[in-house]
Amino acid sequence: MTNTALITGASRGLGLALARSLAEAGWRLVLTARGVNELERAAAELGATAIPGDVTEPAHVRRLADAVPELDLLVNNASGLGATPLPPLAGYPLEAFRVLLETNVTAPLALIQATLPALRARRGAVVNVTSDAATGAYEGWGGYGATKAALEQLSNVLAAEEPELAVWWTDPGEMNTRMLADAVGADEAASATDPAKVAAALHDLVHTRPASGRVSLQ
């Protein structure tokens, strides 16, 4: 039986690295991201199904759910950084915060809700990618960190409510990604961990299937 994974934010960074790792292990992959060209190149490389779009749009969530009537793994990796340069909370633009909540909290919950029947049927797993900013008081990271803290508690409750599923909220640590470069600059980001190394740890997590909970991947 072939395992199926749905990965958001899969055109680059951790999402793409995990897709490559799972493809090598023979998984069927459904990949989504907003960047059409990058996503289609990734899908062509991996023999995956590409469904470009924005996970905050209900119609796109429905398309994704329809594409995975059988689902073993949902990876909510797509994420927004929020306002940049990273502002203090005293001056955080509230509209930008509302958009960030929609992307980092509401959209993952919507996709979980839409795919739960398929996940339950296969006793599948959910990975919600969070951050150490969810637990640490890092200046400038209050908006982003607050959304990731909300995603962590959402994951915690989901694990309690869906005991037949594995639910992990994973802290990947700092990775050399475009998002980190946007936050701290390209030079600092270049010294961070290669996403492929984190993806290997995440693949091991899926393979070994420990109990639901928070997992640090570095």
Automatic annotation (TrEMBL):
Keywords from the UniProt entry: Oxidoreductase
Keyword Oxidoreductase: yes
Catalytic activity, EC: 1.-.-.-
Superkingdom of source: Bacteria
This protein's record includes keyword Chaperone: no
Pfam families assigned: adh_short
InterPro entries: Sc_DH/Rdtase_CS (IPR020904), SDR_fam (IPR002347)
Signal peptide extent: none
GO molecular function annotations of the record: oxidoreductase activity
Family affiliation: Belongs to the short-chain dehydrogenases/reductases (SDR) family.
Name this polypeptide is given: SDR family oxidoreductase
Species this protein is from: Nonomuraea harbinensis
